[in-house]
Structure prediction request, 202 residues.
Amino acid sequence: MLYGRNAETAEIDRLLEGVWGGRSGLLVLRGEAGIGKSALLEYAAGRAGGARVLRATGVEYESGMPYAGLHMMLGRHLDGLDRLPDVQAGALRAALGMGGAGGDRFLVGLAVLTLLAELAEERPLVVLVDDAQWLDGPSAEALLSRARRLRAEPIALLLRAGGTSRRRACRSCGSAGSTRCRRRGCWTSVRRTCRSTCGATC
Prediction:
């Protein structure tokens, strides 16, 4: 039971209702430690019903390891790479250390979007990311740069980021700038994502 979080749980419920209605959505939970953000993630997991739930957690000591977050999130579903176009599958395999040389970041992001869409064809998909401020830059870029391209896919992306900031979301692409946090490395990664996707500087 969550007390005093009616507004937040209602917003999560709307996000999940949209997914079951065939619409995608992105929601970011921000704030200082200890205010119940992780409990809200668990609430979302419990309310997901029959949706497939993918989870990842940013870890400080892994924040410098490229694609560690994606590997955690997609590790159990990498058999789906065989359904991706060869060039996308090759880029993602290389990024995750499964063979090949270097994964082009654009193709990796495209592969992530395609794989998530493939998984969502079977049943709605809910992606939960805890401690997103510690997510490694390439994983954050792959997720955020593609999140704004979600349209009719039944995919919900819910991020929990620690810390607060006065920075505003990117006015041009909103979703990419919405993971505001204090950590400079994280903000730099998000700002770079905004520039690459909409040409704006957050």
